[in-house]
Predict the structure of Glucose-6-phosphate/phosphate-translocator.
Amino acid sequence: NIELPPKPETRSAAAQKVKIGIYFATWWALNVVFNIYNKKVLNAFPYPWLTSTLSLACGSLMMLISWATRIAEAPKTDFEFWKTLFPVAVAHTIGHVAATVSMSKVAVSFTHIIKSGEPAFSVLVSRFLLGETFPVPVYLSLLPIIGGCALAAVTELNFNMIGFMGAMISNLAFVFRNIFSKRGMKGKSVSGMNYYACLSILSLLILTPFAIAVEGPQMWAAGWQTALSQVGPQVIWWVAAQSIFYHLYNQVSYMSLDEISPLTFSVGNTMKRISVIVSSIIIFRTPVQPVNALGAAIAIFGTFLYSQAKQ
Ligand code: 3PG
């Protein structure tokens, strides 16, 4: 009974699995922390356009410093790269602001329940805009996803139309972002980490004028005074935490997108929402009715069926 050592290719396949597993676990943990601080900030300082801008600004700054100090190697990019990145950045900006606006109006858990419907958007966009067709089971798996989200929405105790629409718009925008990013990253020498850094910088440039137009310095100054007087100086740390963790979780998610298909990515993303939904309900003591929880569970189960049908 001599045990042979595993073949090199089996070993490297196992190592790859472990690596993706570590990426996923880190991505989900960072995302939970981001969501908690983001909501704490939005409760005290309800200016989602500014907080979205600060998250992008913080990430851009972290990466510019890393490149300048050679902690990370700066990417070699040309005009063509930034041109291809532009639509991705537009989609990223819209998806990010829309999700943050949503979370400023409703419970974090509700935004993420609606966002668990992202695979349905992915199929509909691929079918109607890209002309891709799928086997019947894929379409059938959309029924529990859409039905579960709808049930959760109609039974949500604190339903708010802006909160609901923000999450829906974010779903649509992120489907485009993921399709375009995967295309943009294919065959390019820019790593997932640097690709996301460039995406942050471009999104920041796109978002800043809109944030000033929609909210603007006067509102921010008045809101900031209120937040400081009600919460105290710790609100500064909450803003810093939400910005830093926003960048980190996205960076890790792009590092995994580098290695996996958009499908695996979107399934991993939906599974991530389970940890966010559960932890935010516990931390913010969000009231949930059983039928509301049932809707969320059906939607998430639908995503699982979808991933099976798509394989
Ligand atoms: C955002 O602010 O961009 C959203 O919270 C992110 O949504 P995601 O969970 O799809 O990354």
User: Anything to note?
Assistant: The pocket of 3-phosphoglyceric acid is lined by residues 95-96, 99-100, 115, 174 (CB under 6 Å). The chain has twelve helices and no strands. The chain has one domain: 21-310. The mean pLDDT is 91.
